[in-house]
Design a protein that fits this description.
By secondary structure, the chain is mainly alpha-helical. The chain has three domains: 337 residues, no CATH class; 107 residues, no CATH class; 99 residues, no CATH class. The protein is built from 25 helices and six strands. The mean pLDDT is 90.
């Protein structure tokens, strides 16, 4: 037994528990994705139907169920709350640290494994995502594990153990498909084909092992897709595939961004590892052949993700989060070169690190300053809804300046040590500063941000919990009304009025009935203040309150 390796594992386990498990439930779930998935998990518990993902107790074909199952299990343990919804990702955050350590240890050394884990745990956006309730951290873990086993299968080409690695690769890719869909297979295929092309199309895997991987992917995927098709027919899968195609070809939900969007997100969001990885991204470090080969896999995976999701029309921040894992390996390889004296930190690199680092630090400091001066900011804003949001009463004090202060001190001191060539101290200070500032930021700020953006609406939904009423939004999309109202099911009357002209379920059809139809119980509406005039003079509608950008209406049965 390697005591040094066990020591690192214990350190990373404790670090992961400290970083990811506390304070998960202090802020409400954010629309759309967080509360979307949590509501699907809650509805599984309410209905007892775990075979199909639902929203508002209607089929939801945009995502497979694996992550939702995890949330449902978590909710059965911790209750239906924010902590339970985010708990699976926190566990996968710990798994990621340990997995990256094992990969780095096998690839090179204990220290290298620890550096990879440090890069992942000590960078801003990866830290944030493991304390969220979205699908991507689990999906990314499975994809990364699948590529890792593919690389092992290729490296052991011609050996017996290559078959075992091929099967494991297929299992993990299959689990990724059950988590988020066929994009998992696309990422894996593009990575393998690109690697094969770089190797000038020389044989890298046997037909037998290729078949074993394909069979494993098919078998794992079939665990849900098979019974779903047998039980409910192909329509659900057809809708699922149609949605995936639409996501790639059109700016779904208005998420259209410039082609360089994901590069900016990763460059800034993965600070400091993104800056430490730049040199290694474009040059080959002095590694052993097998180590350099895995680094090649990581570079290919990174560029596949970045290019693929830059081409995809729908661009959302977390789509490129798969790049964080290979980037952590690439960054650790660069750090290893500094520690071994093979790289020297140039002035241009220091400037490159200084600028985005200062931008992030200043932004952290600016948030409490803005929060303390919202009354001066409101007249400068033209958006009426944003003006209303900023009227929320939020307590800001000196503690809120800690994240930005720690971030900037860590940055400046780290750059001083980098410039002097004291790389061990520089890396320790940079990542310690990033971990502390990000951790404190996530304790202090999400609840304050929610207070401006959605807490007023959430409080209203919760005030109606247990009442025999309908609750819905007007003129904006949200899933929070179902989760925080704790909607118990889809009523008979709703089912009669939920179809559009083509006979398909559509939320607008129900909303039209809520607004204009003969309702069987009171309906409460939440509307943004920019649309308040559309309901204020409508017969039968009573304005209950207007606060912080939201207005609340009631329509009684007799109206």
């Amino acid at each position: 037994m390697n005591l040094k390796s066990s020591y690192y594992r214990i350190i990373l386990l404790l670090l992961g528990m400290i970083l990811y498990l506390p304070f998960l439930g202090q802020a409400p779930l954010f629309d759309w994705d967080e509360v979307n998935f949590a509501e699907s998990a809650r509805e599984m518990l309410v209905t007892g139907n775990f075979s199909r993902v639902q929203i508002n107790f209607q089929p939801f074909w945009e995502k497979p169920p694996l992550f939702i199952w995890m949330q449902a299990l978590s909710m059965s343990i911790f209750g239906v709350n924010e902590y339970a919804a985010r708990f699976p990702n926190a566990i996968f955050g710990i798994i990621n640290l340990l997995m990256l350590f094992e990969i780095g240890r096998e690839m090179r050394s204990d220290r290298f494994g620890f550096l990879i884990a440090l890069c992942m745990g000590g960078s801003f956006l990866p830290h944030v995502y493991f304390k969220s309730g979205i699908i991507d951290p689990v999906f990314n873990t499975f994809i990364f594990a699948g590529v890792w086993y593919i690389s092992k299968a290729v490296r052991s080409y011609g050996e017996i153990k290559s078959s075992k690695y091929s099967i494991w690769a297929g299992i993990f890719i299959g689990l990724a498909i059950l988590t988020k869909g066929p994009v998992a297979l696309l990422i894996a295929l593009l990575t393998v084909v690109t690697y094969w092309a770089v190797r000038r199309f020389k044989p890298i895997v046997s037909i037998k092992n290729l078949g074993l991987t394909a069979l494993s992917i098919f078998t794992i995927s079939l665990l849900w897709f098979g019974p779903e098709t047998i039980k409910n027919g192909p329509w659900f899968l057809e809708e699922f595939i149609t949605y995936q195609i639409r996501l790639f070809s059109t700016p779904d939900a208005g998420h259209k961004q410039p082609i360089y969007y994901h590069f900016i997100v990763v460059f800034l969001g993965c600070f400091p590892m993104s800056l430490l990885a730049i040199k290694t991204l474009f040059r080959r470090p002095q590694f052993r052949v097998q180590d350099a080969d895995f680094l090649l896999w990581m570079k290919i995976l990174f560029w596949v993700v970045m290019i693929l999701f830059s081409i995809v029309t729908t661009k959302i921040v977390h789509y490129s989060s798969m790049a964080y894992l290979p980037l952590s390996v690439i960054a650790a390889a660069g750090i290893e070169e500094y520690l071994r004296g093979r790289h020297h930190y140039a002035k241009w690199q220091a400037a490159l690190m200084f600028i985005p680092g200062m931008v992030i630090g200043i932004a952290m400091l600016a948030l409490p300053i803005i929060g303390q001066n919202t009354d001066k900011l409101i007249p400068l804003i033209k958006d009426q809804f944003a003006q209303g949001n900023l009227q929320a009463i939020v307590d800001w004090n000196w503690v809120d300046f800690l994240p930005g202060t720690i971030w900037l001190l860590g940055l400046l001191l780290g750059l001083v040590y980098l410039s002097s060539g004291t790389y061990r101290s520089a890396i320790t200070i940079l990542f310690t500063g990033a971990i502390l500032s990000t951790g404190i930021f996530l304790i202090l700020f999400p609840k304050k941000i929610a207070a401006y953006t959605q807490q007023t609406a959430v409080d209203f939904y919760q005030s109606l919990e247990g009442k025999d009423v309908y609750v819905e939004t007007y003129h904006f999309k949200s899933f929070a009304q179902y989760f925080y109202f704790r909607k118990a099911g889809f009523s008979y009357q709703e089912s009669k009025h939920c179809r559009d002209a083509s006979g398909n379920y559509h939320i607008d059809a129900i909303r039209d009935w809520y607004i204009n139809g003969k309702i069987d119980k009171p309906v409460y509406f939440v509307v943004k203040n920019i649309h308040i005039d559309e309901l204020i003079d409508k017969p039968g509608f009573e304005l209950l309150d207007e606060r912080n950008g939201f207005a609340f209406f009631k329509r009684d049965v007799n109206n």
